[in-house]
């Protein structure tokens, strides 16, 4: 059963109900309750000679006394659409697989035009709208932007161009960091484009005006990761070079502000020590997706078999093999899609 994401489930007078809107105080009058109960009774009556069912409460589309039965009727087997400027967003796909094992995931990596960090905001918006449209054509029920650069500049424009929910990586990561910090001093690492945008700093201060944010661009991390140097002395030295000033400055929480960086979580954790907590924006993005699917009754049923389908806009490089091995990904299908 495919459900419009604007439908609202709620408990009303002993019934689980789905409506196109919440009931107002006027709707909760005794007359409206009688009307709703009449609608439920109409569900139990056969259709008339013309095949129509009388619906005295037209905003309602379903009603049931038992929550489990109600939620089973609200499942959605469409795929979760995920896109990134390249392959780093597979860390988000992996986190989604772990949290939502019954969901089908369609991942689209724009390997033909990576990186996005040196592109203008207008260009990034144009690329992201094109990728999101491709995912909509794959019947995605939600769009997950697994790219910090796109999340920092294009989310508002994307939400005006697609009819399904859109979730980025910045807001969930910022929320987790504010919840985690004890001394309100948060570090953020990312690409030059993400740090330059100030997106994490703005999101963190929107949640708590008292937080102190120390940001550091780490442009050498992505090349090291893509070369497969995940456990290497050179990588450890580079991490220390970037992070030592932030550690000395007293951060107690560090946000991994690039979807590549979870692949270095072990090495980064060794440099930070036990006193500084890591916030994985990929993992927290997946948590936000799970909460949204639950809230809007878009989860696949437990009988569904989850899968990961990957499409790239150009042939894959060595990093796909690195990511598959490091993340232990099981990719059911891999194809190339052309872009303009």
The CATH architecture category of the largest domain equals 3-Layer(aba) Sandwich
| Bulk shape | globular
Rg to the nearest angstrom?
A: 23 Å
Low-confidence stretches: 1-8, 20-47, 49-63
What is the mean pLDDT? 83
Q: Report the count of strand segments.
A: 13
Number of helices: 14
Tell me the CATH topology of the largest domain.
Rossmann fold
> Could you give the order of strands across the largest sheet?
7-6-4-5-12-13
Order of helices and strands: EEHEHEHEHEHHEHEHHEHHEHEHEHE
Structure explained in plain terms:
With 340 residues, the protein is α/β, with parallel strands linked by helices. It folds into 3 domains: 8-72, no CATH class; 79-168 and 288-336, Rossmann fold; 171-283, 3-Layer(aba) Sandwich (Rossmann fold). Helix content is 42%, strand content 19%. It is built from 14 helices and 13 strands. It has a 6-stranded parallel beta sheet with strand order 7-6-4-5-12-13, sandwiched between helices. Strand 1 (8-12) and strand 2 (15-19) form a beta hairpin. Helix 11 packs across helix 12. The protein is globular, with a radius of gyration of 23 Å. 41% of the residues are buried.
């Amino acid at each position: 059963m495919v459900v419009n994401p604007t439908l609202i489930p709620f408990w009303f007078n002993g019934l689980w109900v789905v409506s196109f809107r919440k009931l107002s105080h006027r709707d909760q009058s005794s007359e409206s309750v009688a009307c709703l109960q009449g609608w439920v009774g109409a569900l139990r009556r056969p259709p008339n000679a013309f095949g129509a069912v009388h619906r005295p409460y037209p905003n309602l589309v379903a009603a049931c006394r038992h929550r489990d039965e109600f939620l089973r009727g609200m499942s959605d087997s469409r795929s979760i659409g995920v896109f990134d400027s390249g392959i780093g967003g597979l860390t988000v796909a992996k986190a989604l697989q772990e949290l939502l094992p019954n969901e089908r995931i369609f991942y689209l990596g724009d390997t033909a035009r990576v990186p996005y960090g040196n592109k203008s905001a207008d260009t990034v918006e144009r690329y992201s709208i094109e990728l999101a449209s491709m995912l909509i054509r794959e019947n995605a029920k939600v769009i997950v932007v697994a790219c910090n650069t796109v999340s920092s500049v294009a989310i508002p424009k994307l939400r005006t161009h697609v009819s399904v929910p859109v979730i980025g990586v910045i807001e969930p990561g910022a929320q987790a960091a504010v919840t985690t910090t004890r001394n309100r001093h948060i570090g953020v690492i990312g690409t030059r484009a993400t740090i330059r945008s100030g997106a994490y700093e703005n999101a963190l201060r929107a949640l708590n005006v008292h937080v102190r944010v120390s940001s550091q661009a780490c442009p050498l991390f992505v090349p090291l990761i893509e070369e497969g140097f995940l456990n290497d002395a050179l990588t450890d030295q580079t991490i220390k070079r970037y992070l030592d000033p932030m550690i000395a400055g007293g951060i107690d929480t560090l946000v991994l502000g690039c979807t590549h960086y979870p692949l270095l979580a072990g090495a980064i954790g060794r440099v930070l020590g036990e006193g500084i907590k890591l916030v994985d924006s990929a993992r927290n993005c997946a948590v936000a997706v799970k909460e949204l699917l639950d809230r809007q009754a878009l989860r696949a049923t437990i009988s569904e078999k989850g899968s990961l389908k990957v499409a790239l806009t150009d042939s894959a490089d060595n990093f796909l093999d690195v990511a598959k091995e490091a993340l232990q990904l099981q990719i059911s299908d891999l194809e190339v899609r052309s872009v303009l």
